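User: Before I run my own analysis I want an independent prediction to cross-check against. Here's the chain; please return only the structure tokens and, at the end, one sentence I can use as a sanity check.
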Amino acid sequence: MVTIIAFITKSMFKQPRPAKFFQSLNRLDEVNLIAGVDVYYGFNSFPSGHTMSAFAISTFLMLCFPQKWGLSLLLFALAALTALSRMYLGHHFLQDVYLGALLGVLLGGAMYLGMIKYSQRQKNA
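Assistant: Structure tokens:
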């Protein structure tokens, strides 16, 4: 579900990745690129699919195990680190990971609610 939503939104917005954006301004040489990291030049930056997936999974698991505060904190930290890494590597802008995180939280919550409704139907059947 996350992959489909990411594909649809990326296709709708068609925002350039940071390297493509700065290349279009003839300022790519001013960007600090990381040695050994491939630069993406496409128009599929918004929103960040990796961030969306990380927040969807972490939100779903946090809702499944609400009594496990340590797990919730760890999952949120890992999702946030995923978002930060996407910007650090130069693959996304802040707004890309922000919307990816927001959509991920919403999708994770929706998946949890869907699981609850499905399990209630199974009990009543």
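Sanity check: The chain has a mean pLDDT of 94.
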